[in-house]
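Students often ask why we bother encoding 3D structure as a string. The short answer is that it lets us treat folding as translation between two languages. Here is a chain of 365 residues written in the first language.
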Amino acid sequence: MLGYRFSKYIPPPDNEKSDFDRLLKIFMQLVLITSGNVSEALQWLTEVDRQYKLTNDQYGMGDFIEDLKKNGIISEEGPKGEFKLKAKGEQDLRKSALEEIFGKLKKSKGGEHKTHHSGQGEEATTDRREYEFGDTLEQISVTDSLKNAQINHGLDNFQMTENDLEVMESEFKTQTSTVLMIDISHSMILYGEDRITPAKKVAMALAELITKKYPKDTLDILVFGNDAWRIEIKDLPYLKVGPYHTNTVAGLELAMDILRRRKNSNKQIFMITDGKPTCIKQGIKYYKNSFGLDPKILKQTLNLAGQLRKIKIPVTTFMIATDPYLKAFVREFTKANNGNAYYSNLQGLGNLVFEDFKKNRRKNL
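And here it is in the second language, the structure alphabet:
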């Protein structure tokens, strides 16, 4: 036997993609960066084309724009006749984000979350156990049971008793309610670093994943600056940073209120931020302090973390910063809530969110 012969893998050339598909990939990135401004994205794409010769005599930018219209991605139905994204374009953005962030991860069967708890679920495991009263016929492993009967009684006097039966373990499926909090304070674009675009990508990828793979789950998205408010999934591409401070308390209070109304037993909060809390609301006025960790703001934030712990809602914090005093705050907050915390660069944010999402689905919170 000669066995297998391996050679160096040579990926297929990128030119197998159509001109439209190649330009569309860049266009989708630009639309997200420009917060859904199609005209600005096309202007940037035209400039990139001028510098790097993305188009040719056979297929130009005008052809690409016409194809965007034909494919239902954009239209000229804006208030002033300008280009705008259509619903299909918004969905394509979410699909693109899902493929970019989670595309290399293995697909799992079933489309629902698993726990470590065995019972009467919908998907069999490799584990076997003895038959117990109440087990259904569908759970009985016929092959294993026949094997036991043969061993126990022999072929000459073949018979099968209750003691020969083996049952396939199955896994409970969970439904989970998740609230994703996105920081839109001014620091998310400070120092020449765009932190809001990766946060939007992760939110869109998570939204598409849950919508398509875990349809029984719920995902609510909120943003927080001086105040906090809910947004729809379709609003994500248009999300912008404002001249806001960081009112973490307002975000957590709104998340808690949303989750109180959800009937699922598994609830969690994901918070993507790059800074410390710098604002709380007192009546109709705001108390703000951007210099260091203000004890007054910190106390309310930690109190709320403790309240969430009591009602068994963990907060997973994804801190897009590595300053020592910010780490100290996150450690204290995480301890008060008994949640999780990650310190991530922008490139690793997507995988961290997915891995924690997947891990939390395997347990009753």
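Translate back mentally: Confidence is low (pLDDT under 50) at residues 104-124. Keep this in mind for the problem set.
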